[in-house]
Every structure is written in C-alpha cells, then in structure tokens.
Inverse folding.
C-alpha cells in the first residue's frame, strides 16, 4: 500500500543504516518511492547491491548509493558520511536503524556482551549521529529517526543488555531532540514490539521456548492485534516522521506494537 506522494521527500538525501536487514531495507524502499535520494549502509556489500538493484528496478529514476561500513569503527563512520555526501549531497535525513540483539539473564552476562550491544546500539549510533548532525546544524534543517524498541520503554525478560541499550537510545532521542530543534533539526524514535524479521522471529521464539508454549500462542497472548508488526508498517511510520507532515512532532517515541505495550 502506498501512503505517500512520490515527491514527498524530493530534494532530500536519506542515510539508512542497517539497510541490509529487514526494517532497514523496507525503509529504504519507501524512502526511495517517496522521492528521496538514499544511501544504503550495512556491513554486507552483496546485500546492499541486491537492495540497490531492487530499488532501481522498481523505479529507474531512483537515486541510490551504497557504502558498506562497520558502524562500530570510527574511521568507517567518517568515511561513510563523507562518501555519501560526495555522492548525493549533504545528508538531510538520518535513519539510525542498525542494531543487534544480545545478552541474556543477568547472571550469565559477560562484560563483552554488554559492551558489544551498547557499542553498536548506543555509542556508535550516537557518534554517527554527531557527524551527520554537524552539517544538518549548519544548514538549520534535518530530521532523524532512531529505531529503538518497546524494550526501550519497559522491561523485557532477559533484556538487561539489549533493553538497556534501547532505553539509552530513548533517553538520547528525547534529550537530543531538545538541543536539535533549536537548529531546525527534528529528532524522534519509533519503538516497535515484535516485527516480522529474522531478529523479531528469533526473539519471539526465545520467549515461546522459555515459556514452553508455541510461537502462535505467545503472539496471540502478548499482542492484542494478534500478529507481529510488518517491516512495511515500521518503514511507513519512519517515513511519516521524516516528512513535513510530522513538522511539529519532536522528541517522540512512536510505539508500533499491535497494542502489546498495554499488556
Ligand atoms: N525485529 C524486531 O522485532 C525489532 C523490534 C524492535 C526494534 N528492533 C530494532 O530494529 C532495528 C532493525 O532490526 P531488524 O529486525 O531489521 O534486524 P536485522 O534484520 O537483524 O537488521 C540489523 C541490521 O543492523 C546492521 N548492523 C548490525 N551490526 C552492524 C555494524 N556493526 N555495523 C553496521 N551495521 C550493522 C545489519 O547489517 P550487516 O549485518 O550487513 O552489518 C543489519 O542491516 C534494530 O535496531 C533492532 O534492535 C527490531
């Protein structure tokens, strides 16, 4: 279903991290359909090329650029932003979507589990944002969406590391939004519950295994709408937050959970 005009984001340049994954690839497609030039990044170059091909096949006039990078590397973050700006102009929209799951019950947590999850989901994301924000601030224009999680708003069993990193991103979103809006830059987050991606299915299955129940039962019981959120539903919400239709939405965490936030 198309909900946006094909020129809603024309003249914009969006950087989408985690574009090789479920939510990121869906978001990149919707942004391209909405007229934005799109830079796709992730570590897997073949996946980036495959997605770029798909976007160009659907829309031959789409402006798509790919740059593989490990966002945990300071050098690679810098190269990514520089090469994206050289290819498509200054980045005006940023989707901080790359993220990893990890950790487990607190008694089994190793220091490196905590550091690995915090480094990708929080520290590296903040540092990438800092570089992109510098040029948004100069131009007094931009919009940023952080993909946090329902686990960034409430406790999740076995989630002290992952949920910790997502709570940190929620706090970053709300605090940074206050600074950035003074410079014409809007910062928001989307906070999905279970999304139908590899990561979402694995984590729902983990919950089912722990409770000794079927995946279907767990989904029906924990999600009032009775199903996982689709990748496209998250992509559409991110895109909405990046358009001028959301011009006065600042510092929000938009929950997309089929109502499971209430259970
Ligand atoms: N699925 C869910 O149920 C759900 C729910 C709430 C929130 N979320 C959040 O939504 C985001 C996307 O999740 P998803 O389900 O689409 O997961 P996914 O399919 O596993 O995608 C994760 C993405 O992150 C990228 N990534 C991981 N480590 C990276 C690194 N060091 N450098 C650069 N890129 C890296 C991966 O790219 P490469 O492997 O190519 O590097 C991949 O594109 C994550 O932040 C996740 O926490 C997901």
């Amino acid at each position: 279903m198309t909900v946006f005009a094909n020129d809603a984001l024309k003249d914009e340049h969006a950087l989408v991290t985690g574009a090789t994954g479920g939510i990121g690839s869906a978001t990149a497609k919707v942004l391209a359909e909405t007229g934005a030039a799109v830079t796709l990044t992730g570590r897997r170059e073949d996946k980036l090329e495959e997605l770029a091909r798909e976007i160009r096949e659907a829309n031959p006039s789409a402006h798509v650029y790919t740059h593989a990078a490990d966002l945990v590397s300071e050098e690679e973050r810098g190269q990514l932003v520089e090469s994206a700006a050289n290819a498509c102009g200054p980045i005006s929209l940023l989707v901080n979507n790359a993220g990893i799951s990890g950790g487990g019950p607190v008694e089994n947590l190793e220091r490196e589990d905590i550091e690995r999850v915090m480094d990708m989901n929080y520290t590296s994301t903040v540092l990438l944002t800092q570089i992109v924000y510098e040029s948004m601030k100069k131009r007094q224009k931009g919009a940023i969406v952080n993909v946090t999680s329902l686990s960034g708003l409430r406790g999740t069993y076995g989630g002290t590391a992952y949920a910790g990193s997502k709570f940190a991103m929620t706090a970053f979103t709300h605090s940074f939004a206050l600074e950035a809006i003074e410079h014409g830059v809007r910062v928001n987050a989307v906070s999905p519950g279970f999304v139908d991606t590899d990561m979402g299915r694995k984590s729902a299955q983990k919950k089912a295994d722990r409770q000794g129940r079927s995946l279907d039962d767990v989904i029906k019981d924990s999600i009032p709408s009775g199903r996982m959120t689709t990748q496209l539903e998250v992509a559409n919400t991110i895109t909405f937050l990046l358009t001028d239709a959301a011009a006065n939405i600042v510092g929000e965490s938009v929950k997309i959970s089929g109502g499971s936030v209430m259970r």
